[in-house]
Amino acid sequence: MYTDNARISHRQLFRQIIAGLLGVYFLVVPVLPEITGRQGVFCLLTGGGIYGFLSIYFIRIRNFFQDPEKYLGRLWGKLYILFYTSWLWLMGVYLLLMTARITGKFLIEGSDSWIVILLSAFAAYLGSHQGLERRGRMAEVAFPVLLLILGGMVVLAALQVKPEYLEETGGLSFFGWIKGSWEILCVFLPFGFLPAALGSVKKPGDTGKVIWGAIGLITGLLILVLIILQGSFGLGGYEHEEYPAARLMSGIRLPGDFLERVDLFWVAAAVFGILFSLGSVFFYSHELLARVHLEKTALMAGAAVVLAAVACEKAGISTDFFIGITMELYGPLFFFLLILAGVGGRKRKFIKAGLLFFPLLLLSGCGISLEDRVFPLSMGVEYENGHYQVVYGIPQLSEVTGQSKEGGESGEEQALVYEGMTLQDAQERFDENQENYLDMGHIKALILGKKLLEDREAMGGLLGFLEENPAVAGNIYVFAAEDMEEVMSLEGQGTDSLGDYLTGILENTLEKKEKQAVVLQDLYGAWHREEEFPELSEVTVVNKKPGIRQHS
């Protein structure tokens, strides 16, 4: 299966992840301080599980990384990407140092490190400029060979296991588990670049299983390596090694002893994986810079990475230095940037403040108080003459919290229509007329107009907008309406919140068969699979009160 139109298939995405990360992780993870024994297994399961669940979020924020300037503006979009890409450059230096030191220790003894660095950088940089399609095909070809050598030899290494060593359980503490899980989260940071890569994948909304599969395979093999290392050397017998997995492979003997140094094949495969990962560093560095119109600086950035690697090698800087920076600085920074991507375009001032005052935010935290938010409990959308029409059903805060006061105004119109060519434009119109932050995390009902439902392209725009917003839950009930504005005008007009009222009708008064209403997640599924949208229950207005009629 090959690519077309500069997009890679799900299989190619899976194989690129494995090809670029498996060899690196085999060398790095076993020497992390807290990743030993049963504690190491629990930490790997925790870290891998967290990234697996984050895959849903990564899919939702992918469009942000396709055009950051659209969401943040030119200056702040560039600043965001520079922060985001700086870890790639740091890892480029780290991978070059690792390549030089592994080559000198296992493959070409006495080789000049600076020559290895230059040749490795040159090969990886050329590979990174072969285009997205060729990199996808390269991963297709390399994957089975790498998996056979790297994974197959790990299985062969199990023959060295001594059962008595496996009886040692090792230490396990709550703080050790927390610290070890954080180590795994930081070492697994390359998965944090998936939102930037998913825009170049076919049907990106369906990549959740691919990401889970890649994380599951890597985590499972790393757990197997930890168990085999303990079974071969015992706890405390390998932690002092710089690359214990390479030492493990040196003890493998094939039947007949026709090859005495089969470990060299494993090391060579690991180095190839490192070079593939290095090529990804250069490739995505260029891609991200190009998305903020800084592609002319990519070559200079690559040269700086190489020069920094040579300088670090001459100075004898340990690779542990880069792991430490990742855990202490880039781990918090990266997760913070990913959170900002989720709110990008909806609160630009919040993004700018976060980028400027990140160190302060790490120490003191940040947030928007409840009194500075508005909480729509329903949302109506129609599409007419090329424009979206959006109504937010926002009850008075006193009514929502049950703190209504006597003498308060009643019957005040709450439903105002905001228009725009896109949903983002309509929301910006809302922001221009409101001093409070629009928090869409409490919406209970989504009312769609008939004209919108008849236009699949417009429906795709709506669903894409909602899916990118992590605050919008997938279990929101979805209804149709002949006149969306008439229905939404009932908000605050003598009824409870429209969202609460419709939810109450569904859950408390209708027969069991009628309660099988459509939720937003059902529309997402039909949209991504290019199926017909399910029939929606229709909201009608009778005696100035909403009612539900099955089906539209």
Automatic annotation (TrEMBL):
Subcellular location: Membrane
Keywords: Germination, Membrane, Transmembrane, Transmembrane helix, Transport
GO cellular component: membrane
Segments crossing the lipid bilayer: 12-33, 39-59, 79-100, 106-126, 138-160, 180-198, 210-229, 264-285, 297-316, 322-343, 350-370
Disulfide bond keyword on record: no
Membrane topology according to the record: Multi-pass membrane protein
Pfam family, one: Spore_GerAC_N
Domain Spore germination protein N-terminal: 370-530
Biological process terms in GO annotation: spore germination
Taxonomic superkingdom: Bacteria
Primary site of residence: membrane
Entry coiled-coil feature ranges: none
Assigned protein family: Belongs to the amino acid-polyamine-organocation (APC) superfamily. Spore germination protein (SGP) (TC 2.A.3.9) family.
PANTHER family, alphabetized: SPORE GERMINATION PROTEIN A2
Protein known as: Spore germination protein
